[in-house]
Structures are given as C-alpha cells and as structure tokens.
Amino acid sequence: xxxxxKVGHIGWLARIEIEExxxxxxxxxxxxxxxxxxxxxxxxxxxxAPTYHVMDIVNVFRKDEVRESMPQDVVLANTGHKQEGNxxxxxxM
Amino acid sequence: xxxxxxxxxxxxLEVHVQLNRLNTKLFCGCSxxxxxxxxxxxxxxxxxxxxxxxxxxxxxxxxxxxxIGLALNCEIVGQTQFHRKNYYYPDLPKGFQTTQxxxxxxxxxxxxxxxxxxxxxxxxxxxxxxxxxxxxQHIGTIEKSKGTLINYNRSGMTLIEIVSEPDMRSPKEAxxxxxxxxxxxxxxxxxxxxxxxxxxxxxxxxxxxxxxxEVKNISSFxxxxxxxxxxxxxxxxxxxxxxxxxxxxxxxxxxxxVTISMRTKEEEHDYRYFPEPDLVPMRVADRVPGILKALxxxxxxxxxxxxxxxxxxxxHARALxxxxxxxxxxxxxxxxxxxxxxxxxxxxxxxxxxxxxxIGIDAFTVEDIVTVIGLVKEDKITEQSGVQIxxxxxxxxxxxxxxxxxxxxxxxxxxxxxKAVEEAVAESPEAVADYLAGKEKSLxxxxxxxxxxxxxxxxxxxxxxxxxxxxxx
Lengths: 93, 473
Fold this sequence. Notes:
The complex is a heterodimer of chains A (93) and B (473).
Chain A: H1 4-13, H2 20-41, E1 61-62, H3 72-75, E2 82-83, E3 86-89
Antiparallel strand pairs in A: 2-3
Helix pairs in contact in A: 1-2
Chain B: E1 10-18, H1 45-48, E2 57-58, H2 59-71, E3 75-76, E4 79-80, E5 83-86, E6 96-99, E7 106-115, E8 118-131, E9 135-138, E10 148-151, E11 158-164, H3 171-188, E12 199-206, E13 213-218, H4 221-240, E14 248-253, E15 258-263, E16 274-275, E17 282-283, H5 288-294, H6 299-310, H7 314-321, H8 324-334, H9 339-357, H10 366-377, H11 383-396, H12 400-406, H13 414-427, H14 429-436, H15 442-453, H16 460-471
Parallel strand pairs in B: 13-14
Antiparallel strand pairs in B: 1-11, 1-12, 3-7, 4-17, 5-6, 5-16, 7-8, 8-11, 9-10, 12-13, 14-15
Helix pairs in contact in B: 3-4, 6-7, 7-9, 8-9, 8-10, 9-11, 10-11, 13-15, 13-16, 14-15, 15-16
Protein name (chain B): Aspartyl/glutamyl-tRNA(Asn/Gln) amidotransferase subunit B
Keywords (chain B): ATP-binding, Ligase, Nucleotide-binding, Protein biosynthesis
Subunit structure (chain B): Heterotrimer of A, B and C subunits.
C-alpha cells in the first residue's frame, strides 16, 4: 500500500519535488499499478522456469578493443556549466 | 600470545579494485589509459549514459573477474546479470550505477593473513563487477566547497568490489588483509596498483558489538590504517562518555586524519535495484575450468615452494613472495648463485635499500646483484663494501665492477695485509705484552695500526684474526 508519505519519500530519492496536493493523486495511481501486479501474482506459474531477462539470450559480449572517444568540446557541448574541461556542479556532499 | 580483542573491534572492508590492465571500459570501447589526459576526453555516449546508447559487456573483464574470484577461493556463479542501483549523484550521469546485486560473479571465498596472533582466515563475502563512477573534485574542502568539477574519464571503468566479512580485529589486521589482497591481484596481473585510484577502500567498523559505522573514501592503505585507528578511538570515547553509536556513513579527511559524519546511511531498498534491461544475463560456468587451469602460482603457494625448493627461512620466503616482481627477480638470482645467500642479499639487503628509497625492484638488475654477491663470495670485497656498492648503484648509477675500482673497495692483496700485520706487531711490543698479560683491549690498538697501514682496505675481522694468530705463536 502506497501512502502519501511513501510518495514523498520516493520523490525525494528521485530528487523530484512533489506538491502536497499531487501526492494523493500519485498514491492512487501507484496503488492501481500495484494492484495490477497483485493480479499477476495470482497466475499459476507452477512448472514455469524463471526468466532473468525479457529476451531469452545470454552472453552478449564485446572484445576488449579500443574505439574512439568523443572530443572534449562535443562532450561538453550541451552544458553551460563547465570549467577547465570539467562539468561543473553545485556544491555537493 | 592470544589476542583477546578487549574492545570487541570488528572491521569489515569493501575494496574497489579498478581493472586498469583492460584496454577498454566495462561497457564501451573507451580507452582505460586516461591518467595523463585532459578531463572528459575518454568518454562516449555509453559512459555518459546518453539516451539511446547501449552498453555491451567487455568479455575480458568478465574473465578477469572470474580469475580474481578463483584466486580468492570463491565459488563462481553459474548465471549472473547486472542490476541498476539507483541513486542521484553527479558522479553518475545516468542516475544509476550498473552493478551486480543478488548473483555476484564470485562469493564465499577467503584470504589468509598474518593476524595479531598467528595465521587468520578472513572470509570474503562476495566479489562483484560494477562500473566506476566519474571523478569529483570539490573546489576547496568537501564541507565548504563552492562547487564540484566532474571528469567522466573514469566513468565506466571496470571495478571489482571485494567485500569481506567483519573478521578483522585491529587496524593492523586490516592493513595486512589489504597488503595480501594487493599481492594476489599483482600476481594475477589484472591491475596496476601504482595508478591513482586503482584500489579504494571503504571500511565498516564497530566496537563493543555496537552499530557499525561506514568510513568511506579511503584512498591509500596507510590511510586505511589511520582512518580505522581514529574511528575506533572516536567510537570508544563516545561510548565511554555515555553516547550511542548510530548507523552512519562518515568521510575520511586524509589531510586532517579524522572522520566526519556525512549522512545517515541510505537503506538498501532506497537504491531500488532492478535488473538492467539493456544487458542480457551472463552464463559463465563453462569458462571456469580453463581459467582455473591458467591461474598462476599465488603468493602462499610460491612461499611454500621457495622454502622447500631453496631451503630458505620462512621470513625470507615471505619477504620475497609479497611482490611478484621481487619473487621473479629472486628466482633468477637463485639460479646463478647459492639460493640461501641470494635470499639474504635480495630480501634483507636489497629490499631494505629499495624500501628506504621507496622504489621498486626494477631499479636494480639481476646481473648487478649477482656480481656483488660474487665479489663477496670470492672474498674480493667485504660485505659492507657490497652494501656500499648497492647504495651507489641506486643513488648514482654505474656498474658494480667500476664502482669497486673507483671507490677502492677491493680488499688489498694477502701479502700486503700480512706485511702490515708483521709491521704492526713489531712496532707495538707494549701492546703485545699487555694483551698476553690479559688486557684484551690492547689488541684493538694493533688491529688499528694494521687498518692504518692498509688505508682501511683490509677486512677488520680478518686483520684481527691474523694479529691474534701472529702473537699467539
């Protein structure tokens, strides 16, 4: 059961500001999603092997061979916050 | 002596090892050789986590991980996959770290260390693969910085996180564990430990069986020992003053040597782990036998072999096998001169001089140490002169053969010593009489004269014996 408080916590984890009046609506929607999973739980899966991935393939690997990286100016092209070739973020802890 | 651990200290370590011997990152083809390059020049859409980019696993990284797991006596999982560990922090542009969760590639291993009271087994809980985040540089100190610079060159590098059980009981044991781990990884040739950030340590510490505190961001082994000593003292003092230890994460401030509270630890479910949909599972069990067969001889096995094959002392075997390069160096020397003599010269003398200068074995050649040992063995120079030659080679360069001549270290010829002894005895009748009357010290006077006459190039012990033989006739 998702409460208003849980919505607030999830919002905090995702760094999304959720207003008081939005919390109720989100709680309701998230609960209906959970209900749907509840229905799935009722399906009889006896004898069905668990899957780890939506596609039934394993071991897609790449050889350890170097490919060209992007030029620095292209890497930084989409930000206005930069300094000496670095991205610049506000003070963080 | 039994170490009782009166304060109930329990230490567990999480060590992040960067597999920098790989050519490319874990999920993309960006080069791992970024240490001397400009920031953000070894990045691509995959390691920046740009929309639409698709990671593909580096096959050799998986093989390295299995190799490490086997060397740590772990079980290797049959099937495994990557998960997303969600947290919001600018070192990860995607907002999650791709890591392994419920099926780490290796688990339930052990490392044997020299504990406070003899050999101890430290259990390895798990070793899993994950990507390294980018590097953050706080402008000013972390507490009062004006901003943070981010370099994603490191982002996506392959990490193996090796997690131990809280089996260590003192900072010293923690240090030994780290040294042993590094030694094993060196043997496997999966990383270069000298590169910045190659091994990073987080420590979990508790005292009196209380809550554990995690100390993060320890960047060196010396730092780990210091951080643990500080943190144990802090917790003990806090408890003695009636305080309670709470579950928290603390940051180790290397400059001040203290730990600072960062935040109360996030609960595991806050990370909202879920299977990484962009990467398919890995089934690697069939690779294990081949990798196991190719595993090199590891430090403990090599130590035992050195003892039985060369007949050297355990202490020497230990010193010689800590570093693979030293072990190989020793074996080459031992193939050319007496292995026991070689052990003394390499383990005690050469390693001592190298440690004093904080340099590696590569600074000296097998050929040169064999020459020095040969000169001593043939009695052409004294042991002290041998040490002096090693020091000269390290500090000024040059070949031992030339240094012997230029520094006048060759022992003088026999007849010159014999002549000097004759003269010294003849010139010192009083000292001879005193010695024969029981004044042992007067012998030094005569030996001193011999040394004077040979300009200090005779071996003092030998001169003493010759004087004795001469006057006892």
